[in-house]
Amino acid sequence: MSEPAKPGILDRLRARFGWFDHAMRANDRYEESKGNFFAAGLTYYTIFALFPLLMVSFSVGGFLLSRRPDVLTGIDSKVKAAVPGALGQQVVEIMNSAIASRASVGVIGLAVAAWVGLNWIGNLRVALSEMWRQGEGSPGFTGYVRTKFSDLVTMVTSFVGILATLGLSTLATAAPMDKVLGWLGIHNAPVLDAIIRGGSLLVSLLVSWMVFTWMIARLPREPVRFASAIRAALLAAIGFELFKLVASIYLKSVLRSPAGATFGPVLGLMVFAYITARLLLFATAWAATSTENLQAAPVEPPEPAVITTRVHLREDLNVRQALTAAAVGAIGALGLSRLVRRNKG
Question: Quick one: CA dihedral 59, 62, 64, 66, positive or negative?
């Protein structure tokens, strides 16, 4: 009699540590729901949104420069000094034409940014719903309009929240705090420097926690448990803060070379968007696979059985059956002929 197979090391770890079993369940849900595929799609829309945002930035800069002709004149002179000759004049003319068409550039940029942002939020909603294993619904025209309006509000608030947490992280890690305090008239205050940096990190963590909680709990098609979303969002916020710290170190090392200054920010932004999307989706899978959210799937009753009688006709006969049929036919014919003769006699 063979002995039963012993459990593997992963099975023993999952049986011993509850948090490890939860992490494995979340990873399985993430893989089954195509988390990497959705993260790549969200990264595409994030990079695509840069172009309309740059258009809006140019438009805002154009409005500001149009009211400061002295600053514009100084920029023109610096451009001509840096790029002499006809090329410098062409750069100045392009800049002046962009400032002249600042209104149309801003309107087009805002329209495209809104369209790209709504697509980004829509794909994020689908991805989060897949992590919760929620089916597709048909909200109708009224529900569709309400959803798009909610997506627009979520897009603006998420954008503001992400900018706020990035700015706070920059203030805490990369900003020259002595210069910031010098502008406020405060000098030689190392304790205050540490307090401001620590407070900035804490506020950044809280803002990230709030944004991720809202996304995990309210962006899926159907409302979910808020307590589970809060715990999962805290996990995502801590990972997000650690990743921003690593990203700041990466940018400092990359921007030192000309090639790194050219391609480093774009590659860094792509990696940043992809890792952030993966963190959010994995945290959602963590919330969806928590103990209170794991419910036994209902077993549907089997379909009614249908009994169908089938008649199978065999058209071909083997040799034995053919000889038997011929013998029976011959005996029947012989008996019939004798009976006919007796009747005649």
Answer: negative
